[in-house]
User: Which sequence fits this backbone?
């Protein structure tokens, strides 16, 4: 068996750029600060057709939701419904109306979601240099709540890598770089502009609903962006505020060069403060973009304001 000498992520990212302090010592939303009023108006200027698309996957599907291995899909349970009234146990109120209630158990990363900037770290520090001890028992710093309070609105651009490669879905572990994004953008006739919300389709989440579940999770390796110093610098130079993909972790599971798992979570989110939106359902939007040729749009989203949350579900809305 091949034994690889995998470097520590801090070694891999030793010279990687950081935006810590750029928006002040108390900042908790990072590169979302790039989404100024001008960016919002730029997004609005793309709206021409009155079409809307929601990007969340269905949550609490009894057939299973796509989740990172080790997590569980959301489970919704009825705690009050007509059955209670049928057996005389439903509460009676003045006026005699009846009602249904339910509760849900879920991993906050267990649906389409925003990661909090403090979701991952190395070397004892999270985004903006906050101490990793601030994550104990709930994120006291850089939780998802400030992202929910702020909201995310700007010009979004879809890059359909799967379609660009003539595939319904990329292969497990298949990689692409920022140069591939630029090639795909050119082929689509769209320009990735500075401060765009970058939405990347691989077909992966859509395939979850068509594949055998055991096969989907077997030797789990998602396709995705792969780490290089040039790619990180490109995100930094482009001032990308938010990366949205239809995969569970927004990057190839294991960097094929270094062997490190999920290095972009640290390079882009911990160090640059780029918000990550994962498990987006992009197929309907991508089909429409291929049809009308409009790959730029108004992107709007706000994760739930979970106090101390490491992430929170979201149903982004795209308007063309
Ligand atoms: C992990 O934490 C593994 O990834 P995600 O950001 O998808 O939750």
Assistant:
């Amino acid at each position: 068996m091949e034994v690889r000498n995998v470097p520590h992520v801090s070694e891999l990212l030793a010279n990687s750029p950081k935006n810590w302090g750029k928006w002040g010592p108390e900042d908790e939303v990072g590169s979302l600060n790039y989404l100024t009023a001008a960016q919002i108006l730029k997004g609005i200027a793309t709206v021409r057709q009155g079409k809307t698309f929601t990007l969340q996957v269905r949550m609490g599907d009894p057939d299973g939701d796509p989740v990172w291995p080790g997590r569980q899909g959301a489970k919704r349970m009825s705690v009050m419904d007509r059955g209670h009234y049928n057996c005389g146990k439903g509460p009676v109120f003045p006026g005699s109306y009846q009602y249904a209630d339910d509760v849900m158990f879920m991993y906050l990363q267990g649906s389409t979601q925003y990661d909090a900037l403090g979701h991952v770290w190395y070397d004892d520090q999270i985004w903006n240099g906050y101490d990793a001890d601030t994550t104990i028992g709930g994120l006291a710093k850089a939780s998802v709540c400030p992202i929910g309070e702020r909201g995310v609105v700007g010009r979004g651009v879809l890059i359909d890598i799967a379609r660009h490669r003539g595939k319904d879905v990329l292969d497990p572990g298949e990689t692409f770089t920022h140069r591939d994004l630029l090639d795909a953008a050119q082929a689509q006739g769209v320009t990735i502009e500075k401060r765009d919300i970058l939405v990347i389709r691989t077909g992966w989440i859509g395939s979850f609903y068509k594949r055998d579940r055991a096969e989907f999770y077997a030797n789990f390796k998602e396709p995705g962006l792969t780490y290089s110093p040039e790619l990180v610098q490109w995100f930094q130079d482009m001032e990308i505020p938010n990366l949205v993909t239809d995969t569970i972790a927004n990057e190839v599971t294991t960097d094929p060069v270094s062997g490190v798992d999920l290095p972009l979570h640290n390079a882009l989110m911990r160090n640059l403060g780029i918000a990550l939106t994962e498990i987006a359902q992009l197929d309907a939007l991508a089909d429409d973009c291929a049809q009308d040729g409009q790959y730029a749009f108004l992107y709007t989203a706000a994760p739930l304001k979970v106090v101390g949350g490491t992430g929170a579900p979201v149903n982004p809305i795209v308007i063309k």
User: Anything to note?
Assistant: The two ends are 51 Å apart (CA to CA).
